Amino acid sequence: MQPVLFSFLGIDVQTYGVSKAAAAVVAAVLLGRAFRRHGLEKDDAHTLVLWATVWGFVGAKIYYLLENAPTLTAHDFGGMGFTWYGGLLGGIASAAVVMRRRHLPVVTVADAAMVPLSVAYAVGRVGCWLSGDGTYGKPTSLPWGMPVTHGVVPTDVAVHPTALYEAIGALLIAALLWAWGRRLPPPPLTVVAGYLVLSGIARFGVEFLRINEPVLWGLTQPQMWSIASVVVGLALAMRARRRARKSSSKFDATPVESAGTADHTGRVQTP
Question: Where are the domains of the chain?
Answer without folding.
Answer: 4-251
